[in-house]
Write the structure tokens for this entry.
Amino acid sequence: MAERELVILLAEDDEGHAYLIQQNLKDSGLANTVVHVPDGQAALDFIHCTGTFSHRTSGGAILLLLDINMPRVDGIEVLRRLKADPKTDEIPVIVLTTTDDPREVKRCYEMGCSSYVTKPVAYDQFVEAIRRLGLFLAIVQVPPEEK
């Protein structure tokens, strides 16, 4: 049986940032499916195949691009829940946020994030950072999620 494609789950409440991230990942050559959700609860629902994603079949590989400051359930809580659950603790989580506080960076790594990327404020730098992220994501290996 062939392995399913890696799905990039983008948890980002800022629609403008979400659009730029998706567009620049695509422009970098990344062909993976990117699923955008507007908050942490929707990210958890996607991963656990619950709520509006109850129809989703698990078993493929997921990589989560996670903003910290989101409504309903924030990114820190999403990260905590994923890493506390043996069924989801291997899902790679790349924190992608405007927060560059060293204490926040340290806390996310201590909680188990795979990488922490600060979104630059300047447009050109933002585009370049996402382009480089896309190049990285094109070669990264991710384990499939548990069924």
